[in-house]
């Protein structure tokens, strides 16, 4: 806890509210104590020490004020924050990035110092599955408890300001805590007290610091404040050029779109780049496996169970081949187990995986884990009781057939619900590339594509082994496969148009996809075309069973289609993760520069702690 100074310098003293504003620029009340009267006047526990400041503004929303006209990028605020919070070199709660615009000799560099903005609508709090975040009435601080966090990193996705920091060493997230211990002692946050150029100030929100004339909601490079309603205000009186480029190498540029106003909109950089294969590996590789396995398993069981209860050839095949049915069900249960384990090991602290469902009220991550976990148990239960009826033979006669039916239909419905919750995890306003119905379309399409191929291959082999009809069975599965491919094609086409219409980072992601990953993107469409043509060919096959060689070749072709679909889905899902560009504020030449981070790891500069890049990218 901050030790109070007996005679602090005036620039470090927390000011009193100098105007009686009651509503901030977002329309929210500044007085937080009035909304929660039972919490007012209560001690605040800071590092195990209870404090109760006498500051009359204690229950009013506070926030930072950044004067871009004054910032000289000395990074004193970063250093003070890191020293005060004892942060390792690869973690920074406050960062100074910059934009550059104009042409010689009329150039402008706009520096931006940013930390957590302690928002009115903290999306990190709503998204966190473990309830590690709390919005306090004391100063309006949004605080995070690393001990509760299990390191999923979802808050780093949804925050538009890159405020939460995932530490790969500790496996947990940490962030700016508004220096509430200093506030309780009547002092400004450490970063503000250390600012050399009077660019950073702090106080009750909407109070304009002495010497400032503006309290704007945005400046160039700042994400849309409507996403979280942040508690930060800006001053920037210098005239800006028509566009700015980022200092961190991100393929995003900011363009002035209202003549005579300092209003900017983000978009793709105009520099052309050649088409490359790109590096598809990322920290989210385990999620590529988890999502595809979950979708394939949910789709396969959905198709298997519905067709088995609708009568016809597949129902007969399932009845005829109990061994193949058992292999399919146990295989699906095993694949879902691998997916869930992979997802768990993706956490920074896997042993606390059980905290994932703490925030069912707000977090789609919690809902995803709950629904997919329920589906997994229903699937496992159905697999056991349908394969080994003796497990429930001791039940009363009318209940024995009821249990498998309840488990089966429960899994049939819970699988699609789980995939919907999974897709909602990616409907993030701070990541425009994902924020489109294409996310749902792609996930359901993957379920139909992979599921139909797995079911068709399993029972196609079983039918072939007993010299029974193969072609009609594969034709039935081909109808489902074609539907999945058409859904995927429509969603991809609609998404492509959306990226152009949306602009901002969405259009920048599209350009990245077509250049740095252009060859991979083309390979995805080629594989899509081959799969669609093969699927339609199966649909158009005559319904009469062909000879043994023809049936054998059909099963072989179906197996090759499954291998191609795995390749197709793998590169499609990897692209989904690597081309997304978040609407975060710009970084600097070293900090927040993905190109420099990659270079530092490849050149072993990252082994030097002072570089500020952790050697392990994951």
Structure notes:
With about 625 residues, this protein is an alpha+beta fold. It has 3 domains: about 10-15 and about 25-245, Alpha-Beta Plaits (2-Layer Sandwich), CATH 3.30.70; about 285-580, Formate dehydrogenase/DMSO reductase fold (Up-down Bundle), CATH 1.20.1630; about 595-618, no CATH class. The protein is built from 16 helices and 14 strands. The chain has helices at about 75-85, 125, 155-160, 180-185, 190-195, 285-310, 315-320, 320-345, 365-385, 400-425, 440-465, 470-500, 505-515, 520-540, 550-580, 595-600; strands spanning about 45, 50, 60-65, 95-105, 105-115, 135, 140-145, 165, 170-175, 200-205, 230-235, 245, 250-255, 265-270. A 5-stranded antiparallel sheet has the order 5-4-12-13-14. A hairpin with a 2-residue loop joins strand 4 (about 95-105) and strand 5 (about 105-115). Helix 9 packs antiparallel against helix 10 (about 400-425). It is elongated. The relative contact order is 0.12. The model has no long low-confidence stretch (mean pLDDT about 90).
In the CATH hierarchy, what is the architecture of the largest domain at level 2?
A: Up-down Bundle
What global shape is seen? elongated
State the strand order across the main sheet. Answer: 5-4-12-13-14
Q: CATH topology of the largest domain, which one? A: Formate dehydrogenase/DMSO reductase fold
Write down how many β-strands occur, each being a DSSP E stretch of 2 or more residues: 14
Supply the CATH class of the largest domain. Mainly Alpha
Largest sheet: 5 strands, antiparallel
Gap from first CA to last CA: 32 Å
Q: Detail the poorly predicted runs.
A: none
The class by helix and strand makeup works out as alpha+beta
Order of helices and strands: EEEHEEHEEHEEHHEEEEEHHHHHHHHHHH
Helix content: 40-55%
Strand content: 5-15%
**What is the helix tally?**
16
Mean pLDDT level: 91
Q: Tell me the count of domains.
A: 3
What Rg is obtained from the alpha carbons, in whole angstroms? 28 Å
